[in-house]
Design a protein that fits this description.
single chain; mainly beta; 3 domains; 5 helices; 29 strands; elongated
Length: 498
């Protein structure tokens, strides 16, 4: 009996020693990590092809691969592009719509698959898969919207195909079939132009769930092939027909474009790499529907630093310029907020004239933020704007040299500056602008060698607190959702060099 107890005690002691070694050496963490990695490989598929679909930052991290978890693993060769999670219409569980491509086959189209909860088996499974018209993964946007007004939220896939045409595919659940197992394709458009959903206000009865709402129309803008002016367009409106369950063509109208020099126009719209990017490299002010300039809302495109700055409602937002695709009338850009990775914008830019552009901006992830301005509309290049007409006496760029506490500062009318201090020369870009009653100077140092994550610290905004013909005083400020905030740094004294 004593031998049995002794053997049992030795066994317990040996197990305890092994457990201590296991914990102390971190083998338990490696074990957990291997299990986690195994689970992650089964649930997350991130594209890793050459010329990455989504673009990568300087650390190599996939900028768009932040939340690609699927309820069930996809098949070999199926690469996830986007995932849409929402509560099922029956309210019993969460459902998923996954956009993917098959990298192992010749078919490079984007597919949509539905992953729903199977009550009979008690597990999630794939119930339906259909192709969409898009085939460019880097342009895909996947979202849900009640298009028909009956609260059956449609799944909408927008993107571009290999001919650089804009596409839109809309799927709607078919109530006559088993729940969650079949969806009808109610619209599929492909056009060498742009496609937008014309959302309209719906009644209070709809908001309260008492009555159905008005269906949304779809507007497609394509080239007028009968015209010699490249900017002339044809607008086609599609409306939902409840009888057929499809979107059908309702009207066609011609929209005349600006009459500008066609040779220069063809150069800008040639599709050659970098041509249109260089053209929009500037500050652009919003133009109201009445034709007035609003210098309080602007967009700055910087293709060299791969940044886009949105300023409006006293809020400045900076986006990574991920990639761009030439279109017939301009450029299609995908971008991602540098602070909120889930906030992405797709910008469809069309040339309106040699000094104006037209934008259609869509949010890829519709999150609630305290920014309500719309970026859609017309914009005019700041270099051609007379800000006195907009109620300001400040101009965006000057040609002058100042002695300052930084050194000798030279402003060029191209929007560039240089600071000479001893043997050090610093360069960058600048812009003068006005917010409410405040004249501001923003300076963006040439930081191409600075990591992208650090660039926000090198963007400096100064309020011009005192200005005369020969001198001005700059006070460092920060612009955010609460307006202009003082940073209480020592002021910068600047004296004009004659």
């Amino acid at each position: 009996m004593k031998k049995s107890l002794l053997g049992f005690s030795i066994s317990i002691a040996a197990i305890s020693v092994l457990l201590i070694i296991f914990l102390a050496t971190g083998l338990w963490q490696q074990f957990n990590d291997s299990k986690a990695d195994e689970h992650q490989r089964a649930m997350i598929i991130t594209p890793q092809e050459a010329n990455s679909f989504f673009g990568a930052d300087q650390t190599g991290e996939m900028l768009f691969g932040d939340n690609l978890n699927t309820r069930v693993p996809l098949e070999d060769g199926e690469t996830v592009i986007a995932v849409l999670n929402r509560e099922s219409e029956e309210g019993v569980a969460e459902e998923q719509f996954v956009a993917f491509i098959n990298t192992s086959g010749a078919d490079r189209r984007v597919y949509i698959t539905y992953i729903g909860y199977d009550e009979r088996s008690g597990n999630y499974r794939r119930m339906w898969t259909e192709p969409a018209a898009a085939s460019r993964p880097d342009t895909i946007s996947l979202f849900s919207l009640d298009m028909t007004g009956d609260r059956s939220n449609c799944v909408i896939v927008t993107g571009m195909n290999n001919r650089n045409e804009h596409t839109m595919t809309i799927f709607r659940r078919n109530p006559s079939r088993p729940a969650g197992q079949a969806f009808d394709k109610i619209a599929e458009l492909q056009i060498d132009g742009s496609i937008i959903i014309q959302e309209t206000g719906r009644s209070l009865a709809y908001q309260q769930g008492i009555a159905a709402g008005q269906s949304f129309n779809i507007a497609a803008y394509g080239p007028d092939i009968t015209s010699s002016n490249i900017l002339d367009q044809i607008e086609t409106i599609y409306s939902f027909n409840p009888s057929s369950g499809q979107y059908e063509q309702r009207s066609i109208s011609r929209i005349p474009g600006s009459q500008i020099e066609q040779r220069r126009l063809r150069e800008l719209l040639s599709g050659a790499p970098g041509v249109f990017e260089n053209y929009i490299h500037d500050l652009w002010y919003y133009v109201s529907p009445q034709g007035t300039i609003d210098s309080r809302q602007y967009i700055y495109f910087d293709p060299y630093s791969r940044e886009i700055i949105f300023y409006g409602d006293e809020t400045q937002q900076v986006f990574h310029w991920l990639n761009s695709t030439p279109t017939r009338n301009g450029l299609f850009i995908t971008s991602q907020n540098i602070s909120i990775s889930t906030l992405r914008r797709r910008i469809d830019i069309e040339l309106a004239s040699l000094d104006s552009i037209r934008l259609r901006v869509s949010e890829d992830v519709r999150i609630r933020i305290d920014i309500t301005e719309s970026w859609d509309g017309s914009y005019r290049r700041a270099g051609t704007v007379n800000l006195k007409e907009a109620g300001s006496s400040i101009i965006s760029a000057i040609d002058a040299v100042y002695d300052s506490t930084w050194g000798r500062l030279q402003f060029l009318n191209t929007g560039e500056y240089t600071i000479n201090s001893g043997n050090t020369v610093r360069k960058g870009h600048y812009v003068f602008y006005r917010v409410n009653e405040h004249d501001l100077l923003e300076m963006r140092p040439d930081n191409s060698e600075v990591p992208a994550d650090d660039r926000t610290e090198n963007r400096m905004v100064y309020r011009i607190s005192t200005a005369t013909n020969n001198a001005m005083i700059l006070s460092r400020v920060r612009i955010g959702t609460s307006g202009i905030q003082e940073l209480f740094e020592p002021p910068v004294m600047m004296t004009l060099v004659e």
